[in-house]
Amino acid sequence: MEVLYGAEGLTAAEVRERMADPPGYSAVRALLRILEEKGHITHEERGPRYVFSPVVSRTKARRSALKSLVQTFFGGSPEQAMAALIDESRSKLSAAELDRLAALIADARKEGR
Fold first, then answer.
1. Domain boundaries defined on the chain
2. Separation of alpha carbons 104 and 87, rounded Å
3. Intervals of the chain under pLDDT 70
4. Rounded distance, CA 31 to CA 36, Å?
5. Exposure b/e, 101-113, CB count within 10 A at least 16 = b
6. Model pLDDT, residue 40
7. How many angstroms separate the CA atoms of 113 and 109, rounded?
8. Could you give the CA distance from residue 27 to residue 25 in angstroms, rounded to a whole number?
9. What is the pLDDT of residue 35?
10. What is the pTM of this model?
11. pLDDT value, residue 8
12. How far from chain centre, in Å, is Cα 3?
């Protein structure tokens, strides 16, 4: 999806070319088909080629992906997901980033009451 957001429409071959560590062409085509079936992208025919474009905003796509990740790997627990992210990034987080995270948690606590 990230590759498609940075372009005005791409063919499967162009998507594959822009990926950092691309799978085979068939896998890219299969992934594009799945994304289209789920309503995240669409295609139009330009000559003999299909050109793919996103139809879901980047923000909505991120939320959907994050929700799926939390459900799949953390049993639906945002707390476990956040704990894993913080633990993994502990040495990389700056004091300012930790302050912003603490403020987000404080805001969530206020809204939860």
1. 2-54, 58-112
2. 17
3. 113
4. 9
5. eeeeeeeeeeeee
6. 92
7. 7
8. 5
9. 94
10. 0.67
11. 87
12. 11
- In one-letter notation, the amino acid at residue 53 is S
- The tokens describing 83, both together, are 């704990």
Q: What whole-number distance in Å separates Cα of residue 82 and Cα of residue 86?
A: 6
Q: Give the Cα separation of 17 and 60 in Å (integer).
A: 25
Contact by Cβ (8 Å): 41, 55: yes
93 residue type, one letter: L
Cα-Cα end-to-end distance for the chain: 37
Contact in structure between 77 and 85 (CB atoms under 8 Å):
no
Between CA 15 and CA 6 the distance in angstroms is 11
Q: Which of 30, 27, 32 is nearest to 11 (CA)?
A: 32
Distance CA 63, CA 56 (A): 11
Q: Which CATH class is domain 2-54?
A: mainly alpha
